[in-house]
Amino acid sequence: MTIQFLLIQVFNGLVNGAFYALLSLGLAVIFGMLRIVNFAHGALYMLGAFTAFALGQLLHLGFWPSLIIAPVIVGVVGMLIERGLLKRLYGLDASYNLLLTFGLTLLTQDLVKQVMLSKFAVSSAPYTPPDSLSGVVNLGFTMFPKYRLFVIGLALVICLITWFVIEKTRVGAIIRASTENPGVTRAFGIDVSKWVTGVFGVGVGLAGLAGVMAAPIYSVDPYMGAELIITTFAVVVIGGLGSIMGSIITGFAVGVLAAIGAALYPPIANTLVFILMAIVLLVRPSGLFGLPEGTR
Amino acid sequence: MKKVNLLLATLSLSAAGLAGAQSLSLADGGVKLGVLTDMSGVYSEMAGPGSVKAAQMAADDFMKSHKEFAGKVSVVGVDHNNKADVASNKAAEMIDRQHVDVLLDIPTSSAALAASEVGKNKKIPVIVVSGGTTALTNEKCNKYTFHYAYDNYMLANGTGTTVTKKGGSSWYIIYPNYAFGQDLNRQMTAAINENGGKVVGSDATPFPNTDFSSYLLKVQAAKPKIFGTMQAGNDLVNVVKQYNEFGLKKQGIGLSTGLLGEQEISALGQDAFAGAIATVPWFWNLDARSRVWALQYKKLYGKLPTYMQAGVYSASMTYLNAVARAKSDSGEAVVKALEGYKFNDFFARNAMIRPQDHRVILDVYTVQVKPKSAAKEEQDYFQRLQTIPAAKAFTPLAESKCKM
Q1: What DSSP element (H or E) covers B180?
Q2: Which residues of chain B are within 8 Å of residue A135 when distances are taken between CB atoms?
Q3: pTM score, two decimals?
Q4: By the CB < 8 Å criterion, does B202 face chain A?
Q5: Smallest CA–CA separation between A100 and chain B, in Å?
Q6: What domains appear along chain B, each with residue ranges and CATH number?
Q7: What is the fold, at CATH topology level, of the domain defined by A3-295?
Q8: Per residue in B324-368, pLDDT tens?
Q9: Distances (CA, A) of A162 to A17, A22, A159, A240
């Protein structure tokens, strides 16, 4: 095991970490504002990839326009879900949301599967990265696909922008205030429920964006979100729910640790994240960056 | 004139009646083919509803050529969700309640083994087409189970031997870490070593898995001549996609696969697979005879068949022919008629059903995926490199662990 090999694995891990970070960031933003664990996040990530694929097939839109349009479409779908369905459950026990979003996941997966089979006659499809990003780059210690470097970079930028908006701007101040004390925020003349819809839209839009970014790496497949979402929930538990920076850092860190672990001892690849989760739950039940429930 | 006609009609009627009464003995008045398959999961495209259609097509063709069976052959398709326990329950239900006379197809090795066990207990023939495990004709063999089309030995032996002989002297293998993958890895390694090649590295990967980059980077560093991937289905699609992405092909590392079917090539695009070498029992444009059948299938069902679906047709036909020879659909009689039977059809060439282990041996082909530019028509994927004769394609009887 050379330093060079470890370095390669770090880059590998950052790619997976980029997806964990984008997804857990969305979950964190949604949980912070709505107190909802959005189980449909993985399906919406898949919907992003599928939308990009469908835009390419039907309207001949390439990667770049899809990178913007698909997340917006997913975001709008998310807002409709919030307005039409989730809103009705706010007064009820959290398990109702869980059941609803889980049901939505199954529905979305099968719907996309049916559309792919009937409309495009495939059950999974490849998605080619733009020419400008295909090929490999010589990093000195290894040849690494250009597109994967782009994924790492873009994910970092998006994560930092999200963090900046929420922590440092007036928009963020309103969101934080609505989270902290919706009643008082309303008293200041702010329509909290509109903000809730918007935040949910942005949160799932991030999942849609991750989906488009993932499409050229994995095939577009109705079940591509199902596996990823489980790992992402583990990442969220490790980082602590509701912390923006926490979910970003944990996402990337878990990606890197899992990649190094997989290289050192391949059979552990799929389990390592859950071992980490178990340890964190034992030592710090509210997660590395989370505050204990009482002090929130 | 009228009288003569009447006489003829009476004669032929009584003749038909006599023939039926004398010879054909069908329990519950007909023959029912039970296709136990994956209707909506990962294997639903290579087998699935397409297999049910193939069996139906065989039933229809058979009834046309055997008048005494007209209206008597039917087909049911049942989903086993790729789970052994479901397969076991469904197989029993199909036999007990739906009165099927044979079980066909059965993708997913564990499900095939489970159904085989049920067939053995209920004395109903089970003809496995889409499941690959060699256990069916070795330690788990039984009187009622037959293995059609392909198996892991044939895949590994054909590809490992051909590629190594062609100069692929050093290999790096990755395989999914469950029975199917471990089995393929073992047999592929044996075939490579036997032909003077060397396996410089092999890694077990999680199953299922989407990200193979760590393994591909290890392969890249080891610089073998051939990268052998034993993944199947969607996992194979992801491996090959990433093999191209990491530029392994451009660095001159050749690609060999374990189980490669038409559907993976369609999913990823022909050029991504171009140059890959695999072993198959059949492909639709193998020759004129295959093409005629495949185009007929497409005309009826809108899609070209995979080799597993073609295999289900051939297996159904072979079974029905055995029923006709035995003049009975009792499991025992049909098994007797199948054992040692030699035949040729559009799918199975120089085929023989080995009585010792019930392996259906047939000629198989080592193929290389053509680049898109060399394709002359839709799904023109494979260039035949070599025909492996039936006698050499499958586990030699001397090595078989089957005790029936």
Answers
A1: helix B179-194
A2: 247
A3: 0.81
A4: no
A5: 24
A6: 29-150+287-358 (3.40.50.2300), 153-280+365-390 (3.40.50.2300)
A7: ABC transporter involved in vitamin B12 uptake, BtuC (1.10.3470)
A8: 999 999 999 999 999 999 999 999 999 999 999 999 999 999 999
A9: 17, 10, 5, 17
